[in-house]
Design goal:
Elements lengths: L2 H8 L3 H12 L2 H17 L10 H18 L20 H20 L2 H12 L4 H8 L3 H23 L5
Helix pairs in contact: 2-3, 2-4, 2-6, 3-4, 4-7, 5-8, 6-8, 7-8
Length: 169
């Protein structure tokens, strides 16, 4: 496999790999490092790449496993919590602060979800994979993916609504 062929296969989904790594590792720098590691592993195993039915799904699974390993290691204690990927300069300062606050609340709520629900939210709502692909990546059946996604969305909705209502019902 030539470098051009490799790039044609890998480049369309490298941003998805980064976003998944960022969701799991939080830190932009750590996510960039993880993405680079995954791409390097794919390059080193480029001769085996034709054996995979879906290289994108395989790389997402590799990313998930790599990030979990990184979080389990002692390096995880050094990860920074930084959320600076949202900017909108066309709104008033008050509205901008409210939007940033809502985004931070959603991120905190997602972080508190069970691991499986957190992964499914990331893959479905952020990376926009379909249910079959998520089921294959997480080694689950389609129904379980849908149920977990529904529960995760319900939890996010309830907690965010409760937050915005200041606990008043």
């Amino acid at each position: 496999m030539t470098q051009t062929e490799f790039l044609n296969i890998v480049m369309p989904f490298k941003d998805k790999v980064f976003r998944l790594a960022k969701r799991l590792l939080i830190s932009t720098e750590e996510a960039e490092d993880a993405t680079q590691e995954i791409l390097l592993k794919l390059w080193n195993n480029k001769t085996k790449m034709q054996d995979y039915k879906n290289v994108e799904a395989f790389s997402m699974t590799m990313t998930k496993n790599f990030c979990y390993d990184k979080l389990k290691s002692k390096q995880a204690q050094n990860l920074k919590l930084v959320h600076s990927n949202y900017e909108d300069n066309n709104t008033s300062l008050q509205k901008q602060i409210e939007l940033e606050d809502s985004i931070n609340w959603v991120a905190r709520i997602i972080e508190d979800l069970p691991e499986q629900q957190r992964m499914i939210i990331q893959l479905r709502d952020i990376e926009e994979y379909d249910y079959d692909e998520i089921a294959k990546m997480l080694d689950m059946n389609n129904t379980a993916v849908r149920v977990n996604l529904s529960r995760a969305r319900k939890t996010i909705r309830e907690k965010l609504t409760n937050t915005h209502n200041y606990g008043i019902k």
